Amino acid sequence: MLNIQKSNYMTFARGNQPTPDLSVVLDGAALAKVRKAKFLGCVLDESLDASLHCEELTKRLKRSTYIVKTLCELAGVGIGKLVYEAYIQSHLNYCPGFWSMSTKKNLLRLHRQQSRAIRIIQPDLSKTGKKLLTEMDILPLPLAITYNLCTFIHQQLTHRGPQTLEF
What we know:
mainly alpha
């Protein structure tokens, strides 16, 4: 059963090309056209470039970094790392195949936010961020994206991953 009041539609276009205005009617009710929508936790827009999703993800990571900082000060580094994994790394590991299509600028923002959170947990200025990540057994964002995509491809090739749609 489809809830028509909650249903809408979106058209996609490449780059700056205009999207066509369509009149979509379902059971006599016209569906509203939207420019962006959240689907399974990912923000989709008309250009499918993932910029809006990366902006939201960056904001979420900034809020989570504050939580990591507060808990590190109150409860110590061990709790800080657990909170990092729950509130930051979990978001970075979710759907990298989608948001990694974004611009280098957006990916750099996410990587910087990851580095800020790590520096809060381990504020040793004599070590590089890369060394701190290695010591904490955390992959830097570019490597985490590559790892997650390779894992997904391996699962598909060995028939261990989620089933793809077939028509």
